[in-house]
Design brief:
This protein is mainly α and 262 residues long. The protein is 79% helix and 0% strand.
Amino acid sequence: MIKSKEKISLGLRENWQQFSLLVLVNMMVGGMVGLERTVVPLVGTEEFHIKSDVVVFSFIIAFGVIKAFTNLISGVLADKYTRKKVLIWGWLVGLPVPFVLAFAPSWNWILFANVLLGISQGLAWSMTVNMKIDLVGKKSRGLAMGLNEAAGYGAVGLTALLTGYLASYYGLRPQPFYIGMAYTIIGLLLSVFAVRDTRKFAQLEALQVSTDETEHKPSLWWVFKETSFKNKNLFSVSQAGMINNLNDGMSWGVFPLLFMSM
């Protein structure tokens, strides 16, 4: 049941202020990934004199594996503790990342920062998606998802471009990572003081669903099997998402090499 006395309704127009705020927050979440896309591989080769490409790009592996597992459990955590709390936890975990990247004394510290970043992204990005979908309801889920991804990945690209410029002008560290410090502080403050939890919107939509559809509450294992193996449509979506992220990861390696050849 919805206990709040505040009258709420689903829709982008009805909730455009919170929706826009979540877009802004997600841009900062995405910017945290773009923060290291250009610079970190160069730190590995030029500052820590790492010769192996596999070792240099091990930070991508650390980030990707941790983020995948965190994505898997973020929904469970949101149901138990609310979306806003999980979003805030994501920013808290990510708070040390730009400081570690800026001043890390060894490559192992860079890997540690990427473990934290993977957890942070898995929590914060997932919650900004879910909260937007909560606000708009089922009729505008595709639009909400599209705006979320456009904002997040747009910020990835712009931040990568900006950090690359700063690195070419000031050096690899620490100046390019000051952007990330600003992202984490502003993102955390907005999440704590401006973002409102959207659970009541999800509850409102659930009340509009027929009883037959809500009798069965699927477990995490059921969802995993359904989306990964059993349902052909969901399987194709999951496969496309995996390929997209592999593509995204490959670009982490290509962009710095192009930057080095300029």
